Recover the amino acids of this structure.
């Protein structure tokens, strides 16, 4: 049996966690000097209700290595021998490092040769890591091997496409996710930056004006980039206003031939702290990237090779 362990930033609803038997290690959030356990002592909606009145942005802290150590020990005691841990991007949190430290310590201290633990740095945030968790859960139900599941995660984690936009840039500025210069220009010109994830960190991939153009950007990019062979569901996320995600879903249904599930789930408090109110996100698996110039070079190389072969053949005659 293979066990999935995640951290609370995956933002998956309780029914999905139960469906795939996912154990969650919580991140903590500190607001006005008080520390809360994510999802246990504070809900996403409670945080979003607080945000407008907070002068200082809440801070978040990764789980300790000991939290992972204790869970590894608990699972092994329960008879589990194979564990896959899927964490938030190492570029955004120390959670991955905590899980790795715990793995190395646990395996060396227990000296159990038949226990396997693999930690996946999802290079994702929020429902991005959640996407991999669901895929992993489905593979376990299909009786895929430990090695096959690891290979899938390491291969596809860089292809979980993220799109994120917000109606208010303030939280992104305060959290350092967006430069002051970009933010000032955005506010003055009423331009909303659209972010994605590159190498595990947030990066601006587009700029538009107005929510309708945000929706249009999402749909156009989805049509161009989606890998139809592997994307059998889409996750749409929101913080304070579910209608934003519902609008994107309507466009997907009306303007694409996508036939898979479209989930709409609220973004959690740990991610919501940084992105603030009015956020809408989209997650799917994109096609593998190709190097256009490399393709051109290969094509020219083959043409030259063919031409040389023809010339040599002619000279021999």
């Amino acid at each position: 049996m293979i066990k999935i362990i995640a951290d609370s930033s995956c933002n998956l609803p309780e029914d999905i966690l139960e469906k795939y038997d996912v154990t969650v290690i919580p991140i903590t959030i500190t607001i006005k000097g008080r520390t809360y356990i994510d999802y246990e002592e504070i809900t996403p909606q409670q945080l979003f209700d607080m945000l407008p009145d907070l002068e200082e942005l809440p801070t978040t802290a990764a789980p300790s290595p000991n939290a992972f150590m204790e869970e590894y020990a608990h699972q092994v005691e329960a008879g589990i021998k194979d564990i896959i841990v899927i964490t938030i991007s190492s570029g955004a949190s120390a959670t991955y490092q905590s899980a790795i430290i715990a793995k190395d310590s646990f395996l060396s201290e227990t000296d159990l040769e038949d226990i396997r633990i693999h930690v996946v740095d999802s290079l994702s945030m929020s429902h991005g890591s959640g996407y991999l968790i669901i895929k992993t859960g489905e593979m376990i139900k299909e009786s895929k091997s430990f090695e096959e599941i690891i290979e899938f995660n390491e291969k596809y984690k860089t292809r979980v496409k993220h799109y994120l936009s917000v109606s208010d840039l303030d939280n992104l500025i305060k959290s350092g996710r967006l430069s002051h210069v970009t933010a000032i220009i955005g506010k003055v010109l009423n331009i909303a930056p659209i972010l994605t994830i590159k190498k595990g960190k947030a990066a601006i991939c587009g700029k538009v004006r107005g929510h309708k153009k945000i929706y249009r950007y999402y749909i156009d990019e989805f049509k161009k980039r989606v890998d139809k062979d592997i994307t059998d569901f889409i996750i749409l996320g929101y913080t304070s206003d579910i209608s934003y995600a519902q609008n994107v879903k309507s466009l997907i249904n009306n303007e694409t031939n996508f036939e898979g599930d479209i989930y709409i789930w609220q973004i959690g408090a740990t991610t919501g702290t940084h992105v603030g109110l009015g956020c809408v996100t989209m997650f799917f698996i994109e096609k593998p990237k190709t190097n256009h110039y490399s393709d051109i070079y290969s094509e020219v190389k083959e043409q030259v090779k063919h031409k040389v072969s023809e010339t040599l053949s002619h000279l021999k005659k």
In short: The chain has two domains: 2-157, 160-285. The chain has twelve helices and 13 strands. The radius of gyration is 23 Å.
